[in-house]
Task: structure prediction
Amino acid sequence: MAIVETRDIRKHFGEVRAVDGVSIATMDREFLVLLGPSGCGKTTLLRMIAGLERPTSGDILIGDQVVTELSPRERKTAMVFQSYALYPHMTVFNNIAFPLKAQGFPGGDIGRKVEWAASMFGIEKLLDRKPRALSGGERQRVALARAMVRDPSVFLLDEPLSNLDAKLRNSAREELQQFQRQVGTTTIYVTHDQVEAMGLGDRIAVMERGVVRQLGTPQEVYDDPADTFVAGFLGSPPMNLVDRQGEIVGFRPEKLLPKTVFQAQEGLIPLRFHVTRVENLGADRLIYGTLGDPFPDAKAIANLPYTLPGRIRPGEIHDFALREKDLRFFDRATGLKIPRNPAVERK
Amino acid sequence: MSVLEREMPAPPRKKGRLALYLDDDRRLGRTMLAPAVLYIVLLVGFPFLLALYYSVSDVTVGARELSFVGLENFRRALRNPTFLTALKNTFIFTIVSQIVVVVLAKALALAFMKEFRGKRLVRFLVLLPWVAPISLGAIGWLWTLDSVYSVINWTLRDLGLLAPGTWPIWLGQPTLAMASVVTVHVWRLLPLATVIILAGLTSIPQDLHDAAEMDGAGAFRHLFQVTVPLVLPIMLVAVLFGLVFTFTDMIVIYVLTRGGPFDTTQVLASYAYFTGIDGGDLAGGSAIALFLFPVLAAAAILILRLARRTEVT
Result:
């Protein structure tokens, strides 16, 4: 199987530094997600790995072999595009068969392989149709079948679920993950959707402005963000970031809870929470407000599960609390995480 | 005026007659369509009906009365060897020039998809023949292909590429004359076809080209299995336009060869003109010209169907 590695890879379009020195390596059979806001360089990075874009500098390795100068066909990578990019003038069969024909497979093999790939995604009955006559979900399956039919060493997926409606996206996500586990092909998946990233990825690379801010498991990236960007990008609502004595303190909204919820008083920071707004989201309640000591006048959001009893109304002041170990600290100038034992001096 | 009065909204002014008229979509639409309809009726519809009428009569230039002769004019045309040559030539010119145009236009359009130095200048030069009036262009070609002063011949001679004793008379030898006429047609139609195909090429999403590359398609497979099939509908539009232009054109023939030598480059349009206007046989000329009609009608139907289909998808 294959490990994909980039070494200080850069892509500059004139003055714009789309990708600005990225060094990451996948693990074998891994599902790696490139996550970031639009324009962060994740798609450019994927296209360079695919061979569709030539890096300005740096190297790309697939399975220990430098492929920087190789064409896409020589890299044995397969890609699924956001638009699926099915050939509109070909039937589903011919779409799936196209890469096989390009590789010069004999006719009989092509038929068998197409049938196999189609059955994998449950689209055997659609083989005679043109893409125009397919639904969004069916097109996505055809695109996946076309990508996997030739046993690529690496799968590259560029926001393949973003054109599906929300309901379909959930089931497609599940199928995609099952399928990847089944074939065990190293997969790099680009998305701007953090839910997709958290749900699908073995690891997530969070990108911003052409660089990777953090590479880690979903848990690591969420619980222990490397900088304020990652802290603010992941989670909905994102991590509360509060200025205090020259550093930035971060804590997740779901960690800010009424004081009565906590059993042990050990390591607990009690604070007053002046509620300004309440949003009821069904399963959760979002409480907007300002904090008292030790974060005077800092705006914060608390995320309370609906199962938590108690009425909270705008204008009220409640006793909330935070656990010291849930606090994260960031450098005010660089935004980078300050690694240290959480020790908050109590006043 | 009191304060109260001033604060009251002004009563709606009575709309002028023109404003009322302009507000009525149906009437306004008809008005705006009228010039086009008038133009078609007067300059296309009426002459066409007149041609139909003439073609079944024995009218001549200067005749004061005419009588109905049935299909005699058509019968006469079909027995006339010059007419048959003209019919054949019309198809040859149209088909050969269209094949050449499509191949060259496709190549040019593909070249224009790439970035290169001086692209704008080249594009301007390629488009130039389309902007130039066809009659002026044809006169230019007349000089270029002149039997004595042909710049082509003198250049070839000075380069030593012309064997001693040979001196091609471009417009005077049957095969060369036909080749010359085709060349001028190609020269004239290439810009339009290039622009149309270029539009078709740019409308193909980049993702499809990327997908073909990811799927490992080589240059040939990419071109003939992805790019060409996708521009085919729009290419057909270019072909149909070119077909109509070439099929009905008589200026190139009129300026360059007048159908000669010995009617070898005669086409339906030019022959209809020579018979009907120069020869004074309006009835015969009309009949000849009407032979263009079935082909043009078929082309028009195809164009309209294509236009509708591209709208839907």
Chain B has a mean pLDDT of 83. Chain B is about 75% helix and 0% strand. The CA atoms of residues 74 and 80 of chain B lie 10 Å apart. The longest helix of chain B spans residues 81-113.
